[in-house]
Amino acid sequence: MPNSFPNSMDFTGFNAPSRIECDIFDLVVAGKLPADINGSWYQTVPDPQFPPMLGKDTYLSGDGMMRLFRFENGHVDFKQRYIQTERFKNERRARRSLHGLYRNPYTDDPSVRGKPRGVNNTTPIFHGGRLLALKEDSRAMEVHPRTLETLGEWNYQGKLRSQTMTAHTRPDPETGELYFFGYEANGLATRDVAYCVANKDGELIREEWFEAPYCAMMHDFAVTKEHAIFPVFPTTSDLGRLRAGGAHWIWEPTKDSFIGIMPRDGSVKDLRWFRGPATSAYHFMNAYTEGTRVHLDFGCGKVNPFPFIQEASGIQVHPQDMAGSFVRWTFDLSKPGERFEATVLGPGGDMPRAAEKDAMKDYEIGYYQTFDPTLGPPLIAGPVGAGFNTILRLEVRSGKLKSFHPDGQSTVQEHFHIPSQTPGHEGYLGFIVDRHAESLSELFILDAQHLDKGPLARVKVPLRLRVGVHGNWIPAAAL
Ligand code: V55
Ligand code: FE
Predict the structure, then answer these.
(1) In the structure, what pLDDT confidence band is assigned to residue 440 with cuts at 50, 70 and 90?
(2) Which among 323, 335, 333, 270 has a CA at the least distance from the CA of 299?
């Protein structure tokens, strides 16, 4: 194969394709891994096996790779395997890419017309005894949790009607249910959204459809003990544009943002839409209901941050002008009208995560990431181009912040929270550190409460691990 991966930020630095499937037994660990860390961290990575057919593409299109760090009694084993989607297998047979623009099948090679084009590269979840690899444009793929062998599409035993399933599902830690949705549920650029619930055994017990105000990139949603919250920010699609071979998404700031809220056990007929000016967000930290008020915490940006979407929209925005701040939006269901309140909780950022036990309820602590320009120039990592270099611990009520950053020549991949077995202990944070100077990776483990004190252990990986997207920690007892 000729090396014709483009020189763009999507394929260089820590975004350079890796294409390595491997096993490494017993990684070298510096420092001491706490004895109560036993379980598996799965992470999904877009990793294109071939250079883009059209000469350029986004990081988001890469073939899904599943990564596994398995922690056992102070030892860590590593495994990485491609997810064998139809698309992956078709391209492997042809020894080249057969797909065109991100989420536009009208730009594909005629040999794959009408065939599935999902890459399942965004989030691994473990629910109902199954490990699933998710991406918002298609159904889940099931992967064997030990061998990482691909087992096939998972469509809830043929019950799921939605053509898509979000990469951001919301498990209720108390009931074991999985809340999720699918947008473009009825096909490309449709406004249909499917709201779904699977019970703790992984059976689909509910699927109800509604129409969003317009077709938007609904990347995440939020659920409280009482409500489901659907965000609609103006990154929009259009079937005519897709048919003409254009971009799936453009940023359309003349449109308002909408937030739909319904009782989570009620009906989509009860959805109430709140409304504000154009904003952009990808991920929600948490949400909870307090009496008649619903709180939603997240990093709120001013404009869609992805360069390929900005380019399709004819704009170019400097990273400093996109960040916005970390906010709490509060919706008062006892008041009429479309308005809501916004409070600033911290500096702008993304990749927010709270401990799983705190999901859906009033909570004290969350962790998210930011880019601190004083640490050094931006380094190429992830879909926005510049990777985050700092992890923040936010005390939500007081706004108190603690932070950790590796050094000026490293970026951090999304962190995950590991619960501790010791009562009252806040648990640990783990994340991959991209060492740009050495082109190697390490997995850091920190005490979550004292993350400013630095790593307890550093798991050395003798490879450059291409920047992944999301991951989830599964305790050994759950597997
Ligand atoms: C995101 C990631 C995706 C995608 C859409 O981080 C949005 C946001 C890795 O794929 O397809
Ligand atoms: Fe995401």
Answers:
(1) very high
(2) 323
